[in-house]
């Protein structure tokens, strides 16, 4: 019996050791960025589009909807009149939030400044969740609960999964198939020849 257990342990070690060596440094990192792109890139891009003002330079002046989405309680207090909102800090928060919703997902997908962008997206999701719960007053069913046996709540379950996907590139980096890796290789090559 000991021989059989030893054989199973060695076979397990050989198979999964081989799989680990073949995928180390590229597969998990690329897969996490691919899943993020396929599930959330268009979601965040479409959400960001609702926040830009009209015209070519609309990205410099967020829409009234951006203020309503990001600062719902303040907008309600001011009867939805954005002209009464000071640029600092509130207008700046809305402007940076709008830009972050465009820029951070693209950086994650491209694998450029990936760790910073991934941690930024995690922070963005946390803030977005806080605003949804406290500012938009979503109901308890939408919020859901962890360990409730129901994986369909839009906030507790889905956003926890979003954060989990982002933890891979945040902690491990973008991997060998990324713009970050290209920059490192380019810098190493330049240093070698200078």
From TrEMBL:
Question: Entry's InterPro entries?
Answer: DoxX-like_oxidoreductase (IPR051907)
- For this UniProt entry, which segments traverse the membrane? 26-45, 87-112, 119-138, 160-184
Keywords assigned by UniProt? Membrane, Transmembrane, Transmembrane helix
Gene Ontology cellular component? plasma membrane
PANTHER family of this UniProt entry? INNER MEMBRANE PROTEIN YPHA-RELATED (PTHR33452:SF1), OXIDOREDUCTASE CATD-RELATED (PTHR33452)
Protein's name in the database: Putative oxidoreductase
Q: Which organism is it from?
A: Roseibium suaedae
Q: What is the lineage of its organism?
A: Bacteria, Pseudomonadati, Pseudomonadota, Alphaproteobacteria, Hyphomicrobiales
């Amino acid at each position: 019996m000991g021989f059989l257990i030893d054989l199973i342990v060695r076979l397990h070690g050989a198979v999964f050791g081989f799989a680990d060596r073949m995928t180390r440094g590229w597969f998990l990192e690329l897969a996490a960025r691919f899943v993020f792109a396929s599930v959330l890139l268009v979601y965040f891009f479409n959400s960001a589009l609702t926040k830009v003002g009209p015209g070519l330079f609309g990205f410099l002046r967020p829409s009234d909807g951006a203020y309503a989405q990001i600062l719902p309680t303040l907008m309600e207090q001011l009867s939805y009149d954005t002209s009464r909102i000071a640029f600092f800090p509130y207008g700046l928060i809305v402007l940076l939030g709008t830009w972050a919703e465009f820029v951070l997902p693209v950086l994650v997908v491209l694998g450029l400044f990936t760790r910073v962008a991934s941690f930024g997206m995690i922070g963005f999701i946390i803030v977005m969740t806080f605003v949804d719960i406290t500012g938009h007053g979503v109901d308890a069913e939408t919020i859901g609960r962890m360990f409730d046996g129901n994986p369909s709540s839009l906030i507790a379950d889905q956003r926890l999964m979003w954060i989990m996907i982002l933890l891979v590139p945040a902690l491990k980096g973008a991997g060998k198939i990324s713009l970050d890796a290209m920059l490192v290789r380019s810098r190493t090559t330049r240093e070698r020849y200078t």
